[in-house]
């Protein structure tokens, strides 16, 4: 679990990131989760954009991504979900 201080730090780190994935009409699928796991291993911190035509609400999408990728939800802001997962091989972010 992330502390409030760690979440604030990660929000600041994620501010300049562009969304890498987009969740559209079909929602979250296994292939997307596998790709997100791979990218989280490389980057640790990513943004996922939820498109207007997505049939599920942002909280449901975020929950599925967190469960599927075993990641931490940093924040849902607007239509973007910020996810963090500590990397095993490529540790780059030092949490406070």
Automatic annotation (TrEMBL):
Top-level taxon in the UniProt lineage: Bacteria
Residues annotated as domain CRM: 1-96
Q: Which PROSITE patterns match?
A: CRM (PS51295)
A single Gene Ontology MF term assigned here is:
RNA binding
Q: Which UniProt keywords apply?
A: RNA-binding
Q: Name one Pfam family in it.
A: CRS1_YhbY
Q: PANTHER family from the xrefs?
A: RNA-BINDING PROTEIN YHBY
State the protein's name: RNA-binding protein YqeI
> Which species does the entry assign this protein to?
Oceanobacillus indicireducens
């Amino acid at each position: 679990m992330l502390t409030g201080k760690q979440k604030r730090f990660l929000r600041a780190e994620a501010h300049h990131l562009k969304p890498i994935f987009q969740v559209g009409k079909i929602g979250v699928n296994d292939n997307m989760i596998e790709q997100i796991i791979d990218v989280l291993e490389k980057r640790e911190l990513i943004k996922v954009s939820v498109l207007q035509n997505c049939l599920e609400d942002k909280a449901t999408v975020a929950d599925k991504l967190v469960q599927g990728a075993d990641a931490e939800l940093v924040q849902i802001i607007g239509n973007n979900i910020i996810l963090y997962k500590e990397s095993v091989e490529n540790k780059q972010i030092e949490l406070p």
